[in-house]
Amino acid sequence: MMRTRSVALLLSATLMVTGCKKKETPEADLPASNIVTTTARSTTLNDSLAVPAHIEANPTQTVHIYPPLSGRIVEMKVVAGQEVHKGQVVALLQSGDVASARSDFEKAKTESDRADRALARGKILLDHEVLSQAAYLELQATAASGHAELERTRQRLHELGFSENGTSDVAPITSPISGTVIDVGTANGELQKSVDNATNGIVTIANLDSVWIVGEVFERDIALLKQSENVDVTVQAYPNETFHGRVANVGDTFDPTTHTLRARVVLPNPGHRLKPAMFASLKIARPSQNAVVVPNTAVIHDGESTGVYVKGADGKFNLRQVKVGAAHGDDVEILSGLQGGETIVKTGASFLRAPATGD
């Protein structure tokens, strides 16, 4: 019984020693059949920086139309996306202000006529030396003032879209430019305030013969972006086309939320195929540079550190810390820590990192 127990203890001790030895096996001594190696490549990079962007209407060619007076929209004459020409009626507005403007005109006309008649009588009296020169000059001033007021009230009616001989209280609202309706801010029957008190326009019209491509550039990429730099523009709506333009402006202040600068490219837009709010991308060429690249799968991320398993002179693989740069397709740039030509682990690094297990 004692002999059997001794043998069991000896066997147990042997197994414990064997288990410990397995756990101490160097990572590089694991079967190489699980590991795929490759060589870090020295290459010349000629890629581009992709900047997310969107399309905007040119603000200098955009107008927000406000009603010239308060009233109710009788009829909207346009819809979003419609082409309009300068002077075209975009809406009809019924307003009590029209009656007031017409009343002001009629009153001014009456006063002006009265002043003219008084001036004519005054001239006769002046010629017969019944009226003094000073009194006649006063009549002239009154007549001139009446004419000015009459002209002011006439112009007011014209601004509202009416003639002095009309009777309607429905005002046509017209477009001051030719362009495309990009927004309609009201509907039939809605009340509108005059331009002095309005907060929203009833129609927004933009000339889309040219558009802005506005990109959001991160701080680290600012050096690549220069005014007048040639850039390629791609749009999600036309994935097989590339548009060419120049950087017209780079902003001076960062967006406090995204911490980016706005870069603006102006593109001609024949046929108005490029629409405001479309998603786009600016492709900015990077300067050619020599670099070391490795497959993405070769890079090991451990918290804030990154590394690559590199084959040493003794044939073993050791984890070496590296600094990673930009991705280039399936490869990634290594900024420091690795030289071209060194043998690295492409896949299977997990077998080097995982400890061996035993019974």
TrEMBL record:
- Output the superkingdom of the source species: Bacteria
Q: Name one Pfam family in it.
A: BSH_CzcB
Give one GO molecular function term.
Answer: transmembrane transporter activity
UniProt-listed GO biological process terms: copper ion export; plasma membrane copper ion transport; response to cadmium ion
> Can you tell me which family this protein belongs to?
Belongs to the membrane fusion protein (MFP) (TC 8.A.1) family.
Domain named Multidrug resistance protein MdtA-like C-terminal permuted SH3: residues = 290-347
Q: Which PANTHER family match?
A: CATION EFFLUX SYSTEM PROTEIN CUSB (PTHR30097), SLR6042 PROTEIN (PTHR30097:SF4)
Tell me what organism the protein belongs to.
Terriglobus roseus
Q: What does this protein do?
A: CzcA and CzcB together would act in zinc efflux nearly as effectively as the complete czc efflux system (CzcABC). The CzcB protein is thought to funnel zinc cations to the CzcA transport protein.
What GO terms fall under cellular component here?
membrane; outer membrane-bounded periplasmic space
Q: Which UniProt keywords apply?
A: Cadmium resistance, Transport, Zinc
Query: SUPFAM superfamilies attached here?
Result: HlyD-like secretion proteins
Against Gene3D superfamilies, the record matches this protein to:
2.40.30.170, 2.40.420.20, 2.40.50.100, Helix hairpin bin (1.10.287.470)
Span of domain CusB-like beta-barrel? 210-286
- Extract the InterPro entries matched here: Beta-barrel_RND_2, BSH_CzcB-like, MdtA-like_C, MFP_Cation_Efflux, RND_pump_MFP
Q: Which residues form the CzcB-like barrel-sandwich hybrid domain?
A: 61-193
Q: What is this protein called?
A: Membrane fusion protein, cobalt-zinc-cadmium efflux system
